[in-house]
Amino acid sequence: MNGKKKRTKRNWVVPKGQEPTDLDRRVIALEEQGCLVPSRRLILNDEQIAGIRRSGVVNTGILDMLEEKIRAGMTTGEIDRLVYDYTVQHGATPAPLHYEGFPKSCCTSINEVVCHGIPSDEEELWEGDIVNVDVSTILDGYYSDASRMYIVGKTSPENERLVRVAKECLDIGAAAARPWGFVQDIGRAIGEHAHKNGYSVVRDLCGHGVGLKFHDDPDVDHYDTGEQGMLLVPGMVFTIEPMINMGTWEVFVDEEDDWTVVSEDEKPSAQWEHTFLMTENGVEALTW
Fold first, then answer.
1. Tell me, what's the pLDDT at 136?
2. How far apart are CA 260 and CA 269, in angstroms?
3. Which run of H or of E encompasses 271?
């Protein structure tokens, strides 16, 4: 589930009485140069990372299960019940359920719906639809978050290409995320690939920190904002989840439910998302 963009500067603070580590010194030096650095609490320890990894296994299992289930004629309400049942059967909780009033266990976004579509027994999948299912899982207090595109039956070559390029954008963004680099590196790489293929990148929503909370720092923009963004330090966990539109990047929120985000020109949109751990060697996917 996407975060709403915010701009909050966090300062790196070494706890009183504790000697600074080499990592502390490196981050502090960059902060003194004017870089936006994460809060020290965003650098997770081995136990926390292991917990997020276990949550990610359940989250991935849900998306794999849906590969076998999604078909023309089923409703998005059925998808939601499948997600809920699998989640609780594995000892976990769907993070979206009742989050800020969201009424369901996952988001189902069909065709021109960019994200945050609310599942309904009145909404049926049709042959040729493309649908994003966004699933977020809490297991033992640890959060994971991922989404996947599903093609219902056979769709148009245009839709197939959009889905493929959106996945490429996620992969390219992940490859651009490097330790001691900046969030801007991710957005610039995604934007270049999307634009090269004739698509636009949604700007009003972003990826986000995740793991101990559903949404946390950093904001992960999927286009080149012209700003560096936050420093990426080993131990940070965050999502990359580019929303790629066939037409304009502009979107609107459906006034009827105040959640569903739709492309302004109502042309199709596609999105893929994973939760990533920043390591000393680049990112490791905690969902897949």
1. 98
2. 13
3. strand 269-271
